[in-house]
Give the backbone structure.
Amino acid sequence: MARSHVLQGLSLRSFCVLLCFIPVAKGMALDISFTTHPPGYVAGRLPLGTGNSAHALARDPENENYIYAAGLFDGVARIVRINLWTAARTTVFVLPTSITVSGFAVLHSRALFISDAWHDKIFRLHDKNPPDGDFNDPGEVSELIQPIYRNPGGDWTGTTVFIIPSDNSRLTLKAGTVLFQSEDGGTTQGEVLAVANALTTPTYVPPYRRYFWGFNYGGGLGLDAQGRLLVASSFWPDTGKVWICEDLDGNREIGPGESNILVPRVHPTTEWAGLSALAVDSSGRVYSSVGWGFGNSAQTDIRTFTVPANPLQTTATVSTFATLNSPYLSAVIFNSTTRSFAPGAVNGAFMILLGFDPFYGDVDYLLTLRPDGPSLAVRRWSQYK
Ligand SMILES: [Ca+2]
Ligand SMILES: [Ca+2]
Ligand SMILES: [Ca+2]
């Protein structure tokens, strides 16, 4: 979930607390870092450049040495592609004021999709006029499809964007189907919208209805190792809940008996401003972040679990994987769907995290966590110097 959406995701009470602290926070550029992580991993930073900040991240599905970030770079709102080893970045899109990135996902180097909760729109960027490595040429930006299930007044609150990577029989969705997680403000009113044929004739699956609904506020989407859909909830009364979905009857939507709350809410009775993001490693292990607090009390827990057998009938056993002194992570992604994230793995995957500082200010770096096995590229990675 992007920065612009955080305030919409906070309760009125926590929003007031936030306002009270913002003047204090000015000039107090506090660092964030892991406060605990398991043995067998090394934490690092990926610098974004002094004064720059990211607001949303996306995996590069074609090259695991890169990620995409939306944010402010050299004072200009852009989407950039960042080399994980050198931190060098290339601009792929300069955002006009008519587009804000609440979340985005990359289909391939020539197409990406943006959820814009600020303007209540879904955008498609298609590098074709000419295909020159950016989306800034005439006719390369269009509205993918009109959002459905809006609030009164037309407000739409889309956040996470996720692309189905290959034909998926457990969800009855084709490769390239784009999922949008929206959070239209009411309890249990969050939706997953599925858009098929995104580059040709975009259509909702099922037609003009939501694919799944019933959670409250989007906290991330992912697939387990069997291709089932994981849906995280980021806000009261569902903070930290993770649903799992499977289209058992093949009717291209998740109906009764086809979803289950795999992980219950974080605290049974009390919640404050907990929020979450979700990522799945190459083994199918799931990571979900839940943050709370402010200033010295700011903390995020990265929780982890494996999806149990028969997940529609049982719950997962959750443990704390790592903790940070950030109150909120906007994104957690892996750079690779194939490299191992097991402790000590050689040439393992990177977990890349985008967090706020303890006062909800921006920081000009991303955090990384990687298995500490030897890497051929390690000498080029600035964090190890
Ligand atoms: Ca909106
Ligand atoms: Ca172009
Ligand atoms: Ca179904």
